[in-house]
Specification:
The structure is a homodimer. Chain A is mainly alpha-helical and about 190 residues long. Helices cover about 60% and strands about 10% of the residues of chain A. Chain A contains eight helices and three strands. Chain A has helices spanning about 10-20, 25-35, 45-55, 80-90, 95-100, 105-110, 115-145, 150-175; strands at about 25, 60-65, 70-75. A three-stranded antiparallel beta sheet of chain A has the order 1-3-2. Chain A starts with 7 loop residues before the first helix and ends in a 9-residue tail after the last helix. Chains A and B meet through α1, α4, α5, α6 and α7 of A and α1, α4, α5, α6 and α7 of B. The structure holds a DNA duplex (28 and 28 nucleotides).
Chain lengths: ~190, ~190
DNA sequence: CCGCTCATGTAACTGGTTACATGATTTA
DNA sequence: TAAATCATGTAACCAGTTACATGAGCGG
């Protein structure tokens, strides 16, 4: 019982298993694979060893179930797992949680000066279009009535606010460069 | 000449060396150490091997300089380095750049339901306070007249917009939980 | 002279990624 | 029956982290 700190992704897996009932490792993978926030790849090489780790530490337990004719291992947090999760959530919040979250687009704007003027404009135009596509996905996720509870809705709302502020940001960049942005397809 | 893709941090180092003139590895470290966006630690174990890598690939070159009586290695991008940087910036923008950037605070809100009501409120109150502190730092960085050029200012503005949208987000969460947020100290 | 900043590294670790591999079941 | 999805893994790799280590120069 080392009581080490959970990594970000470990806590997510643990919390998913807690929030969305017993889940197979595969189901957990899908959450990451389909998430509008592409923070982790959700690859097998990430999830299965992680599940193993949590199992061996007694933070989750697994139970075989039979869906139709197929067998699968479903995973759910133990009491110790829930305690660990609560510890992870507990105050105080570290600087890196409260501070400015990284944004690869912002990074690129920071160094946009390496490109000649024309390519700068092309970059911004393109970024705008890509953002609109992503924004649509987030809006859809936000509006879809999810049965995942009020906190899921809040998170989706947070993602939407984040995307909107990035749009405002890009508009300011475009304005500074004299780029006319295309309207999103209605 | 493998022409492999630059990692995010490699591109940042290369771009910093390009934007802010010849820099010592130590000076580059400081940029990361002091950045209001704590994306990378800026530890020696990250920066020095990275510089070695870029040197061995011919993307940067180093020159000894003498500041007073001390000697140091300053680094600046080669022509190949600038080309690599331009390639890195070039369109098209991938989904992970355009998509919703990760936010550890949002993640925690997603799973806030693990905590009892009282601790939920405490979490939000505390997060709010921590955010105000971070917000002040970003505002200061945004207002300080930096000689780092217009794109630095745009980036700082982007960071500010990001933080403000997170404040709006937290306010909505607080409202949903019936938490009264303390006003930031004026 | 003490402590801080400048300056440069190394070593062990760890955790997440890609890519590979397999096989059952469902759906078009 | 072919393709997609469900389901579970493994292995090599790599990059970033922490911690350790050293030493010079400068300001109080």
């Amino acid at each position: 019982m080392t009581k080490r700190m959970l990594s970000e992704i470990e806590a997510c897996v643990l919390a998913l298993a807690w929030a969305d009932g017993p889940l197979t490792a595969y189901a957990i993978r899908k959450v990451f694979l389909k998430s509008p926030t592409p923070q982790w790849s959700g690859s097998a090489g990430t999830v299965y060893p992680l599940i193993e780790r949590l199992l061996s530490e007694g933070l989750i337990r697994s139970k075989a179930i039979a869906t139709g004719k197929r067998e699968a291992q479903q995973v759910s947090p133990t009491a110790a797992g829930i305690r660990a999760l609560k510890r992870w959530m507990a105050i105080p919040i570290s600087d890196w949680v409260a501070g400015v979250p990284p944004d690869p687009l912002r990074t690129r704007i920071r160094f946009l000066a390496v490109l000649p003027k024309g390519e700068q404009r092309a970059f911004v135009s393109n970024a705008w279009l890509q953002m609109q596509i992503q924004l649509l996905a987030v809006e859809k996720d936000c509006e879809t009535p999810n049965a995942a509870g009020p906190f899921y809705d809040l998170m989706a709302r947070g993602a939407l606010l984040s995307m909107r502020s990035r749009c405002v940001f890009l508009k300011e960049v475009a304005h500074a460069l004299g780029v006319a942005l295309e309207l999103p397809p209605t």
